[in-house]
Amino acid sequence: MTRSSAIGADNEVVISPLPRVLDPHRLPNHIAIIMDGNGRWANERRLPRAMGHSAGVDALKRTLRLCSDWGINVLTVYAFSTENWSRPREEVNFLMSLFERVLKKELQSLNLKKVRIDFLGDLDQLPSRLQDLINEATEVTAKNNGICFNVCTNYGGRRELVLAAQRLALKAVEGDLDPNLIDENIFASELLTANSGDPDLLIRTSGERRLSNFLLWQLAYSEIHVTDIYWPDFDVKDLTSALLDYQSRTRRFGGVEPMPPNDI
Ligand code: FPP
C-alpha cells in the first residue's frame, strides 16, 4: 500500500493513483513550492485576503496528500517569509492564527498518514503558542517514515546563508574546524535543509518569475515550473502538468547532454 492516503466514507482508505501520463520512475525526489496568489484569488472574488489564505490551506492539504500518494519523498513549502512581517498587522495576525488552527486541527491526521513535519526558519520570533504547537508537531511526527513536509516559516534564504556562515566561523574560531576544509558539503550541512537535500523541482504559482529569497543555495540546479494559476486553485491537474514539465527536461547540472552512440 502507498504510505499515505485520505480517509473516505466508512473509514475506507482512498489513495490517488499516479496519473498514467507520468513516468513513475522519473519523479522528483524533492518538490519545493512558492504558494503565491492567495491575495489575488480573493481580490478577484471580492473576498477579504484572509479567505484567500484559508483557501490556500485547502490547496496545500490537497497537494501534500497527492505528493505523498505519488511517492514524492520531500515537499518544502514557503508559508511565511522574513519579509512578510511588513504586511498589514491584521494580515500577519490572521496568518499566525491560521497556522495555529491548521496545526491543531491537522496534527492527528498528518501523524496517521506518517508525515514527518518540520518547520524551517527563525522560529523563536513566532508567537509562543505557535512555537509550542510547532515543537509538539515536530516531536510527535519525528519518527514517521512517510513524506517529509518542510514548512518554511519566518524563512529567508539570505538569512539562512548568513547564519550558516556564522556557525562555521564560530567553529573555526573555537578551533573545531579548519577553514580550508570548508566545502559545499560542509556548508550545506549547516543549512536548515541539511536532512532534506536540494529540491529537484520548484513550482511557483501566480505567474511571478522570482525566487523571492527562497532556498537560494538549494535551488542552484532545480528545474523551475511557473504557472499562472493562483495557489488556492492549484489542483491535481496543475501538479500533473508541473511533473510532466519536469519529466520533459534534461537535467545536465552544468555538464553536457550525453551524445547518442554514432551510427556506423
Ligand atoms: C502568498 O500569497 C501566500 C502566503 C504569504 C501565505 C501562504 C500560506 C498558506 C497557503 C497557508 C499555509 C498554512 C500552513 C499551516 C503551512 P499572497 O498573499 O502573497 O498573494 P498575492 O501575491 O496575490 O497578494
What is the average per-residue confidence, as pLDDT, rounded to a whole number? 93
Estimated helix fraction: 25-40%
Structural class: alpha/beta
DSSP strand content? 5-15%
Number of helices: 7
Query: What's the alpha carbon Rg, rounded to whole Å?
Result: 20 Å
**Count of DSSP E strands?**
8
CATH topology of the domain at 29-154 and 196-246: Undecaprenyl pyrophosphate synthetase
CATH superfamily label of the domain at 29-154 and 196-246 = Decaprenyl diphosphate synthase-like
Bound molecules: farnesyl diphosphate
CATH class of the domain at 29-154 and 196-246: Alpha Beta
Please describe the biggest sheet, giving its number of strands, its sense, and whether it closes into a barrel.
Answer: 6 strands, parallel
Poorly predicted spans: none
What are its keywords?
alpha/beta; Undecaprenyl pyrophosphate synthetase; binds farnesyl diphosphate
Describe this structure in words.
The protein is globular. It is an alpha/beta fold and 264 residues long. The chain has helices spanning 38-44, 49-69, 89-112, 128-141, 157-173, 184-188, 236-247, and strands at 6-7, 13-14, 30-34, 74-81, 116-120, 148-155, 201-204, 223-226. The protein has a domain at 29-154 and 196-246: Decaprenyl diphosphate synthase-like (Undecaprenyl pyrophosphate synthetase, 3-Layer(aba) Sandwich). The strands form two sheets. A six-stranded parallel sheet has the order 5-6-4-3-7-8, with helices on both faces. A two-stranded antiparallel ribbon has the order 1-2. Strand 1 and strand 2 (13-14) form a beta hairpin. The protein is built from seven helices and eight strands; from the N terminus they run βββααβαβαβααββα.
